[in-house]
Amino acid sequence: MSVLLNRTKSFICTKSFCKSLLVRNYSDVPKKFKTFDEVIAQRREEARRSLVVQVNSESSFNELYNYCSTHATVKDVHHYKNFNDEHFMLMEFASEDNVKEVLQTCCFHQKDADIMASKSPFVWFRATPGNKNKYEATTKSLAVKDGNNKVDEDELFGNLMECHTVSDQIQMLYDKTKLNDVGIRLRFMLARQLEVMMSSLYANIAIYPFGSSVNGFGKMGCDLDLVLTNNVNYELLDTNRRLVYQEKKCEGGRSPWQRHMELVGTLLELRVAGAARVQKILNARVPIVKYSHELTSLDCDLCYNNMSGVYMSELLWLLGERDQRVRPLTFAVRRWARTVSLTNPHPGRWITNFPLTLMVLFFLQQRRHDGFILPSFNKLVAAAGKDDIRIAEESVNCTFLRDLNKLPADSSRSEDNLETLLYHFFEYYAQFDFQEKAISIVEGVPIRKPNSLPLYIVNPLEQALNVSRNVSFEECERLKMEVRNAAWHLEAVLDGKKTEDWGLLGLLEKQSTRGVKKLLRVGHNHRLVSVKDLFAEDEEPKRKTDQQIDASVKDIKNAMVTKKETKERQLKFKNTQVANEVYRIKRNKL
Ligand code: GTP
Ligand code: MG
């Protein structure tokens, strides 16, 4: 995460950068290592000092900055747009009190008597006509403009084409697609928004992001996993404090937390600005509430008391911090897996990003000719001290070393570059004995499979569980085939021919597919035309006047399914999605 904190500016693969890759000493551990807890605490504190203000446009900055400065000290302002092209300023103030002072100046919209405004760190800046020149131009400028923008795919592929080596391509992919500072800030703002809303109802609630939003393996636009948990605040447990809150017992047949999550879902529908399309999936063992947050264009999954998910994110983050090659390599593998449809945005009988990441970590634990890259999980457990003890729900022991500076130095660390590692990753799994062996980052070596499931990847925190138990025989066979294909592709690259599908390009998107997608990109913002845009009759597509929709696009349009068929598919898909989600949760907790 310190990588995420400190290296927020993506950079172009300049010659000097590429050169620095060659001389990079991969075994450098950052001198002053920040623990996951410290990073999360810092992000939460930053969110408490921040507000998200919807504005008319980017040029509202001067007025907003001056207006807020009359009440508080503004530290930094980050601009972003959501999917609806609406503009927002993420404002960081000097202190939490500053935020309170600014919020005290808030009012509610008076046009409609039925409006019941919510107290939240999401507000909007009202225009006052004729007031424009009241403020002088500030010398302060936006810290970031368009901070939530994903990299343009054509630009990305252009840059990858210009790289000199596959290692440069892998590093470039990581630098250009990883979740940036604004992306992380917004995720913590969403957690903050729920915490503010819930704090009026519960005395000891905390909401933490987990998963790819914080584990260092998240890309721009990744979903937000949130966990709502009882914050064990030791001050509140202090027996010298004589006054104790009365408790409200939750009665009724269903488990109390099912009912609380039902309430949370309803509150999201009624009281949380920006929350839309709320789905309550409560009959699963771990009830979850899914929603989309329109002010930030984020899809969120909120669950209750899944602290083992948070500790798992911490473990992944820690291993990513251990060596600079871990995250770029994982990004390349995850992106390749998406390209060849090994992973899919929707849950099913295929592998997902989390077990795939464990496969990369496991590969990096294997002995290379000049040493190891990552330690086994057992080594982290053996080095743990009493400050590292963490017990999650259902007594799951999540104790492992948190401070990497305390890990005994490696006698030898492999210096292989990213290109070699990616090739060997594919080669390793092309030869892996999936039939007999399980993948376990606990030992860092293949172990005997305890059952005959096609793919067995040990959950390091609950070692009796297989995190890939949903993967079907067919999907496992496809995995084996695709790693072989990828290894062949990279082997050809090592022969030196630089074609359109050179290096990583051929693994991420074949030139032929890139061509079609490029044709489908229209308009100034290079957004992909969705099927809905192409067929909408009742609603004018936003950019219907675009003359750039050339003949090729029309041909593609004609060849596509009819509107009726599309609607039927959408309907079916919605049901399947819910069913799959329930299945996934059941599966995860079996
Ligand atoms: P993307 O959302 O695909 O970007 O990756 P992700 O790492 O966020 O994966 P996902 O949203 O599926 O899961 C969120 C987090 O929950 C993971 O990072 C893990 O920490 C945890 N998790 C996911 N699946 C399992 C599982 O089977 N067992 C356990 N214990 N934890 C899991
Ligand atoms: Mg996720």
UniProtKB/TrEMBL annotation:
Keyword Metal-binding annotated: yes
Cofactor(s) the protein needs: Mg(2+); Mn(2+)
According to its UniProt entry, this protein's organism is Leptidea sinapis
* One GO term of the biological process aspect: RNA 3'-end processing
Where's the Poly(A) RNA polymerase mitochondrial-like central palm domain?
167-317
- PANTHER family cross-referenced by the UniProt entry: POLY A POLYMERASE CID PAP -RELATED, POLY(A) RNA POLYMERASE, MITOCHONDRIAL
Q: Where is the PAP-associated domain?
A: 417-450
Give the source's domain of life in one word: Eukaryota
Name of the featured protein? PAP-associated domain-containing protein
| Residue span, RL domain | 35-104
Which key words tag this protein in UniProt? Answer: Magnesium, Metal-binding, Transferase
Q: Name one Pfam family in it.
A: MTPAP-like_central
Show the InterPro entries listed in the entry.
MTPAP-like_central, NT_sf, PAP_assoc, RL
What phylogenetic lineage does the species belong to?
Eukaryota, Metazoa, Ecdysozoa, Arthropoda, Hexapoda
Which GO MF terms are attached to this record? Answer: metal ion binding; poly(A) RNA polymerase activity
- SUPFAM superfamilies for this protein: Nucleotidyltransferase, PAP/OAS1 substrate-binding domain
